[in-house]
Design a protein that fits this description.
225 residues; Spore Coat Polysaccharide Biosynthesis Protein SpsA, Chain A; seven-stranded mixed beta sheet; 16% strand
Length: 225
């Protein structure tokens, strides 16, 4: 099946090259450079197709750009993986397998299905717990790792999404809510997650969590009407 691997990136010059090299073994790679100010674009374009935003729009817009490209190019499977090296591209086949076998429409890589969650920094554990509980409450789902950015989508998923989600990192919760509401089959597989990757350009985790929680409350408000 024709597979596209989308890597949204913002100032990831330290890791983008190796991520592309590892990911391209499993499909075509598309990097969405969200107006990086470092050498992310220059490094990425040497070994992958790159779409560069002229202004920083956020992860939600980066994924929307990638999904639209995938639909226009008739891909069967779209894998999303973060650019910072937290996720291992060698696990891409594990996420794609349920889609190829028609066992799921969306596959989410979960750090909670193995021992990886024991390595989560203490300051993040509570935040992830709250975001998981809130997302599952609004979506009426039971996903162990709703905030995972390592996912594989079928073409059916993309066709059933209006691609009208927020610009920030709340996109994972929003997509889960939308696709759950449309009764698409969602499956989780265990993945490993690293927490020793460079964080030079990372958003403050507290501000990030509050932003995601705000989007979840907005979804709850829409659901109420």
């Amino acid at each position: 099946m024709k597979t596209l691997i989308i890597i949204p990136a913002y100032n990831e010059e330290l890791t983008i090259g190796s991520m592309i090299l590892l990911a391209k073994e499993y499909g075509d790679v598309l990097v969405i450079d969200d107006c990086s100010t470092d050498k992310t674009f220059e490094i990425a374009e040497k070994s992958a197709k790159v779409i560069k935003h002229t202004i920083n729009k956020g992860k939600g817009h980066a994924l929307k750009t990638g999904f639209e490209y995938a639909l226009n190019s008739n891909y069967d499977i779209v894998v999303c993986i973060d650019a910072d090296g937290q996720h291992d591209p060698k696990e891409i086949p594990k996420l794609c397998s349920p889609l190829k076998n028609k066992e799921a429409d969306l596959v989410i890589g979960s750090r909670y299905l193995n021992k990886t969650h024991r390595k989560i920094p203490a300051y993040r554990k509570l935040g992830l717990y709250i975001l998981n509980k809130s997302t599952n409450l609004v979506s009426k789902s039971n996903i162990s790792d709703s905030q995972s950015g390592f996912r594989a989508y079928s073409k059916k998923c993309l066709l059933n999404s209006d691609l009208n989600f927020s610009s920030g990192y709340g996109v994972e919760s929003e997509l889960l809510h939308e696709l759950s509401k449309k009764k698409l089959h969602i499956k989780e597989v265990d993945i490993n997650v690293r927490y020793d990757v460079p964080h030079k350009h990372k958003k403050n985790p507290v501000l990030h969590g509050l932003g995601v929680l705000y989007n979840i409350f907005l979804m709850f408000g829409k659901k109420a009407y």
